[in-house]
Amino acid sequence: MRIALLSDIHANLIALEAVLARLGPVDAIWVTGDTVGYGPDPSDVLALLRERGALLVQGNHDLAVATGAGLEWFNEHAAAAAELHRGWLSAEERDALGALRRVVAREGFTLCHGSLRDPLWEYVTTSGAARASLEQADTPHGCVGHTHIPAVFASEDGRMSIVRPSDGDIVRLDGRCLVNAGSVGQPRDGDPRASYAVLDTAAGTVTFYRASYRVDETQRRIRARGLPAVLADRLTYGL
Ligand code: ZN
User: Fold this and answer.
1) Is 23 exposed, middle or buried (CB count within 10 Å of its CB: 0-12, 13-18, 19+)?
2) Ligand 1: distance of its center to the CA of 10 in Å?
3) What CA–CA distance (Å, rounded) separates 212 from 221?
4) From the CA of 45, how far away is ligand 1's center (Å)?
5) Residue 162's beta-bridge partner residues?
């Protein structure tokens, strides 16, 4: 199976459309959380993913937009965006976000947003956190998001390595791996292009990609919808 792995789309429709256009045919689309929050187009992003039959797990922003839970942990700009999204979405859309599962296992991968220790909130940035997460998985591999930085944490013979992939890099899924596809809608590794990955379960590989998109159009929409301007500005730098 060829599976598109997307994460942290954050209501950035223009970025999502660019990724889907570049993706080519896939057998499934998996999204490891934070489909909404921060960006200008939460309803349109949810509708497009539904149309494409994507599998979504719940992120901390998804829950905050759905129910208001956890807003006290957000910085002021994230909280302001989540409150606006709560008002823009229909009750049906909020309920769907609130009902998303936090951990899902498919095809040998366990998906969640943060970590398997704390599916909504933990940032997996170290080999220790990655190992602890993999220890709680019943599958060989895992997929997480939340950091907005693409990475593969690979555990083999008790040793853990961290790969920081660039556009076009193919990483073999040897041993046990935790894969982070980076962020479609708000990358934070200094590269403003949308980040995503494609899993090939037959080949046992994950390939990382960056897709250029019209950042200025997303920025225009963020400002036009009254979201905090800093959420537009940061997209220029991918930070
Ligand atoms: Zn996020």
Assistant:
1) middle
2) 7
3) 17
4) 15
5) 153
Q: Residue 62 and residue 139: Cα distance in Å, rounded?
A: 25
The per-residue pLDDT for range 137-170, each reduced to its tens digit, is 999 999 999 999 999 999 888 789 999 999 999 9
- The per-residue pLDDT for range 168-193, each reduced to its tens digit, is 999 999 999 999 999 999 999 999 99
Q: What is the pLDDT of residue 159?
A: 87
Q: Output the CA torsion 181→238→43→49 (10° steps).
A: -20
Q: At what angle do helices 215-224 and 229-237 cross, to 10 degrees?
A: 170
Q: Exposed/middle/buried for 210, CB within 10 Å: 0-12, 13-18, 19+? A: buried
Residue 46 CA neighbour count, 13 Å, CB half? 25
> Is 198:153 a contact under the CB 8 Å cutoff?
no
Beta bridge partners of 2: 200
Question: What's the CA-to-centroid distance between 117 and ligand 1, angstroms?
Answer: 17
- Alpha carbon of 140 to ligand 1 centroid (Å): 25
148 C-alpha to center of ligand 1: Å? 6
pLDDT tens profile 83-139: 999 999 999 999 999 999 999 999 999 999 999 999 999 999 999 999 999 999 999
Residues with CB under 5 A from ligand 1 (ion): 8, 34
Q: Could you list the beta-strand ranges (E) of the chain.
A: 2-6, 28-31, 55-56, 104-106, 109-111, 141-144, 151-156, 159-163, 170-172, 176-180, 194-200, 205-211
